[in-house]
Specification:
By secondary structure, this protein is α+β, with helices and mostly antiparallel strands. It has two domains: 172 residues, no CATH class; 121 residues, Homeodomain-like (Arc Repressor Mutant, subunit A, Orthogonal Bundle), CATH 1.10.10. The chain is 57% helix and 9% strand. The protein has a four-stranded antiparallel β-sheet, with helices on both faces. α9 packs across α10 and α11 packs antiparallel against α12. It is elongated.
Length: 314
């Protein structure tokens, strides 16, 4: 069952609320004359009453409509393809499932519309079908429903189906783009480097030693490292040390100078300059903001600090 708290469903909700999608929804109806509903997947639809329709023939036709819709949705999701079906009134609907990250989040429901005129034989057939639902006395309502329902030729019906599929694919692609990006996985090279640096316990490690640990010459190492991370090794090490300094500054008992040396910086002035350049404040100011976020000073750069913890995300 589709989780109502999933990021995919949240992306669907954002999409159907957007002005661009609403414009396309209206454009489809204007072009075809067929109503178009963007319905959530059945767990949410049942929870908020989206499927609890009254039915065009009055009670209990709404229950029959809901059952037909749920059956069509189940077939569409199983086939991962559009399904065309008839409602209890004999009118046609097209249901196109929308998947985001292979999760069914909603459906495009076009209809009702008619493919034929309601002549005498067809009316008799439909009234007989309604009799099985306890609705044999609804012939008048049935005729009124057909009278005010658009009629499409088979060619226009196929064209409407094609438009719906294209719209569904568009929603699926837009939904993927709205999902949060997974954190990048370090390459094998970076994993080896990080393991080597962790074993060094923040000692001053030369570039030559790091290059040797991955069996590369210093020159080749610099080239490969910059290509994979977008940073020089020196920039990467500074980011690592600054991330470590952030953690240490959370301890009010540590002096800023001790934090600098423990994080791997050899110069207090250089540490202060690097910290301010990265986070927009001095180490002392950062500590105050972290320990007292309601001090009245806007912490504008904590997001930058979070990115820096990853070590190599620009």
């Amino acid at each position: 069952m589709q989780s109502l708290e999933s990021p995919e469903y949240a992306a669907w909700q954002a999409l159907i609320s957007s002005a661009a999608v609403r414009e396309q929804q209206v454009a489809f109806t204007c072009a075809t004359g067929v109503p178009l509903t963007l319905s959530p997947a059945s767990p949410q639809a049942l929870a908020d009453g989206t499927f609890c329709v009254k039915g065009c023939l009055g009670d209990p036709s709404g229950t029959a409509c809901q059952q037909k819709l749920l059956q069509a949705e189940k077939r569409a999701v199983t086939r991962t393809a559009p399904v065309q079906y008839s409602c209890p009134s004999g009118l046609v609907k097209i249901l196109v499932p929308v998947f985001i990250n292979r999760r069914h989040v909603g459906s495009l429901l076009a209809g009702p519309f008619a493919l034929h005129a309601l002549d005498g034989p067809r009316l008799s057939q439909l009234v007989g079908r309604l009799g099985k639902l306890g609705l044999r006395d609804r012939a008048h309502q049935l005729q009124a429903t057909w009278r005010f329902t658009p009629q499409l030729s088979s060619v226009k019906c196929r064209a409407a189906g094609t438009l719906l599929q294209m719209f569904g694919q568009y929603l699926a692609e837009c939904g993927k783009q709205q999902l949060p990006s997974p954190p990048p996985r370090p390459s094998g090279l970076l994993q080896k480097i990080e393991a080597f640096l962790a074993e060094s316990h923040h000692d001053q490690v030369t570039l030559k030693a790091v290059a040797a640990c991955v069996n590369l010459s210093p020159c080749h190492f610099c080239s490969v490292f910059k290509k994979q991370t977008g940073l020089t090794f020196s920039q990467y090490r500074t980011r690592q040390r600054l991330a470590r300094a952030q953690q240490l500054l959370a301890d009010p008992e540590r002096r800023v100078s001790d934090v600098a040396f423990e994080a791997g910086f050899e110069s207090i002035p250089y540490f202060n300059r690097a910290f301010r350049r990265a986070f927009g404040c001095s180490p002392s100011e950062y500590r105050i903001r972290v320990q007292n976020p309601n001090s009245g000073q806007e912490n504008r750069n904590l997001g930058v600090a979070a990115n820096s913890a990853g070590g190599f995300n620009n």
